[in-house]
Write a structure and sequence with these properties.
403 residues; 6-stranded mixed β-sheet; 3-stranded antiparallel β-sheet; 13% strand; globular
Length: 403
């Protein structure tokens, strides 16, 4: 199998594997010669077909099954009612996607910032057919409100400025505006100013007219008290009366009680910052290779949300951190942070037909392949009552009037 086909199998692993019906696909993998009935792993796999780890192992092993395995995989997918997944893996339907979808592979070395160009949705997505999981309403115009805070200019005698973070801010703003969100941005805020801006944003009355909100903070950070992640304002080390700000403080501004306009709507928090001083390092593991060759009505009365029905105070939250607790987050000194740039690339190319959780899985899948001097990082995604599919439907509004 050639390197490009192996790359595609790796690239789409975290998106495709959860969607596979292995009981339908498996007979076709045998029929089309990808696996033989007496292969060494088959007895173990068949005992554990109900486990996603097994399906993932089967999927990744296909890379080792010879020069025709990729085409036979596409055929097997098509023959087992996985046509959409075959089309995604093949990607011949949109040549531009391939051209604009490899920035992540050179992110640590390039001096050229990512260029944002969002693929627009052609219809409102509602999730898989017959799924027992519901879908958040994401149809408002604008789709949601976005708050972006980027801290760049720290005192160089105390803390290193984050000059390249300007590209994070620019690309995030362009990404969300092209997707149909209303964006407000701030930079170089003190700890107190961060909290003031977040609280003001959470009380905007027009939140009642939109279906979602994103809060994105790119800043220096550290491991704070009781292992909470602290966001460092630009006055962090030299202001005696410095106001400490924790990620949890930001989230608390958007509970159903604190922000009733967003009750039961998706609230997404993205934190690009270090969470400690430890460096995560790559680990080498052995790999077995057997390849023989190469509906909601907008209510203008804010009391409606509170009176409609009881709801949980902490619900519909999704929080994504650029790195593990206690660890650093890496940044290209010219083009911006690894996490944010990969986030932008994935969302601009795939938000049109993939839901939010799958998009973040793909971000992490790509981030795992980026290393520098032995360093790497892992995205952490936490949810609090985030129990529905969330399709952003970028740039598509149907008959929705702008609010």
């Amino acid at each position: 199998m050639n390197s490009e086909h192996r790359r595609r199998i790796d690239l789409y692993c975290d998106i495709i594997v959860p969607k596979l019906n292995i009981m339908k696909l498996w007979p076709k993998l045998l029929e089309n010669g990808i696996f033989n009935i007496d292969d060494i792993n088959i007895s173990t796999w068949k005992r554990n077909f109900d486990k996603e780890e097994t399906v993932k192992s089967i999927w990744l092993t296909i890379k080792t099954r010879g020069p025709f395995a990729f085409q036979n995989l596409l055929l097997s997918l098509q023959q087992s009612d996985h046509e959409e997944l075959a089309e995604m893996l093949d990607k011949r339907t949109d040549e531009n996607t391939e051209i604009n979808d490899n920035y992540f592979s050179r992110i640590k070395d390039t001096a050229e910032p990512l260029q944002i160009k969002v693929r627009k949705a052609k219809e409102f997505s509602s999730g898989p057919i017959n799924s027992i999981i519901k879908t958040y309403r994401m149809r408002s115009n604008p789709r949601g409100l976005v708050l972006i805070i980027t801290n760049i200019d720290y005192n160089p005698n105390i803390q290193k400025p984050r000059k390249s973070a300007i590209h994070d801010e620019i690309n995030l703003q362009k990404l969300f505006e092209e997707m149909g969100f209303s964006v407000e941005t701030y930079s170089n805020l003190t700890g107190q100013q961060i909290m003031d801006r977040v609280k003001t944003f959470s009380q905007r009355k027009d939140l009642q007219n939109v279906d979602s909100c994103f809060v994105i903070i790119s800043s220096h950070g550290k491991k704070g008290e009781e292992n909470y992640t602290e966001i460092e304002g630009v006055d962090h080390y030299y202001e005696r009366k410095y106001t400490k700000v924790f990620c949890s403080d930001i989230i608390d501004c958007f509970t159903s009680e604190a922000c009733p306009y967003l009750a039961e709507k998706p609230k997404v928090f993205i934190f690009q910052l270090c969470r400690g001083d430890k460096r995560q390092t790559i680990t080498h593991i052995p790999e077995q290779v057997t390849d023989s060759s190469d509906n909601h009505t907008v209510m203008n009365n804010p009391r409606y949300i509170l009176r409609e029905k009881p709801t949980r105070n902490y619900s519909d939250f999704l929080i994504a951190y650029a790195t593990l607790p206690g660890y650093v987050a890496f940044r290209n000194n010219i083009t911006g942070s690894w996490f944010i740039q990969i986030f932008c690339e994935v969302f601009m190319n795939y938000a049109h037909d993939h839901h939010l959780c799958d998009l973040l899985k793909l971000v992490d899948s790509r981030l795992k392949n980026v290393t520098h001097s032995g360093g790497c990082q892992t995205v952490v995604v936490e949810t609090k009552g985030f129990h529905k599919y969330c399709f952003l439907n970028p740039g598509f509004f149907g008959n929705e009037k702008k609010q």
